C-alpha cells in the first residue's frame, strides 16, 4: 500500500507536468496553463504527503505539503487572471 501511494503520486505528477509542457510546446507559448495542471499537482502533492508520512519521512511530508499550498495559490492566481481576462474582453466588447 505504501509503495502504491508513492508511485501513483509520482505518475500523476509526471503525467500532469508532461501534459502541460507538451501543451506549451505545441502552442509555442507559456500562456496556456490549464486548471488541470494545478489540480494534478495538488493531487500528487497530497499523495506524496501520505506516502512520506507512511514511510515516516518528515522532510518530504513538509516539502509536499508546501507544494500543495503552492499549487493551491497557483490555482487561485490562475482563476483570478482568467476572470480578469474575461472582464477585459467583455468591457472591450461593450465599448467597441
Secondary structure: elements and pairs:
Layout: H1 2-27, H2 35-54, H3 58-95
Essential attributes:
transmembrane helix, 96 residues, mainly alpha, membrane
Describe, in plain words, how this protein is organized in 3D.
By secondary structure, this protein is an all-alpha fold. Helices cover 88% and strands 0% of the residues. The protein has one domain (2-95). The longest helix has 38 residues, at 58-95. It is elongated, with a radius of gyration of 17 Å. It starts with a helix and ends with a helix.
Between the first and last Cα atoms, what is the distance in angstroms? 59 Å
Helix and strand run: HHH
SSE-based structural type: mainly alpha
Counting H and I runs of at least 4 residues, what is the number of helices? 3
- Please outline the major beta sheet: none
What's the domain count?
A: 1
The chain-level mean pLDDT equals 81
Show unreliable segments: none
Give the proportion of residues in helices: over 70%
- Gyration radius over CA: 17 Å
Beta strand count: 0
Beta-strand residue percentage = under 5%
How would you describe the shape? elongated
Brief account:
The chain is mostly helical and 96 residues long.
Amino acid at each position: 500500500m505504501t509503495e502504491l501511494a508513492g508511485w501513483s503520486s509520482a505518475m500523476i505528477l509526471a503525467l500532469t507536468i508532461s501534459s502541460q509542457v507538451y501543451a506549451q510546446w505545441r502552442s509555442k507559448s507559456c500562456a496556456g496553463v490549464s486548471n488541470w495542471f494545478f489540480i494534478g499537482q495538488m493531487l500528487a502533492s497530497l499523495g506524496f504527503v501520505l506516502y512520506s508520512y507512511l514511510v515516516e519521512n518528515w522532510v518530504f511530508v513538509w516539502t509536499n505539503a508546501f507544494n500543495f499550498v503552492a499549487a493551491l495559490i497557483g490555482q487561485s492566481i490562475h482563476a483570478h487572471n482568467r476572470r480578469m481576462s474575461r472582464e477585459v474582453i467583455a468591457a472591450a466588447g461593450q465599448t467597441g
